[in-house]
Amino acid sequence: MTTPVIRPTTVKIDADTKERVKRLAEARHRTSHWMILEAIRQYVDREEKREAFRQDGIRAWNEYQATGLHVTQEEADAWLAKLEAGQDAEPPECHA
What we know:
Layout: H1 15-27, H2 32-67, H3 73-84
Helix pairs in contact: 1-2
């Protein structure tokens, strides 16, 4: 396995944020660099998941526009109620 190439970059932050990061880093026995890198990683992970969710919604909407297939709110609510009650229920059939 190869080690990824790490390249330096510059991030400009205001003095207050820099001090807050420094305090947190000291409290966690980490470096400010580690804290900033971890924050960026978590942000990117979260935003990638959010974008994937958004794209799924767009695909679902486009599929609905093309086919008209759907379930009603009542059908979805009834199915979810069964799942919440611990029943093993199949999702409702889509219809036009």
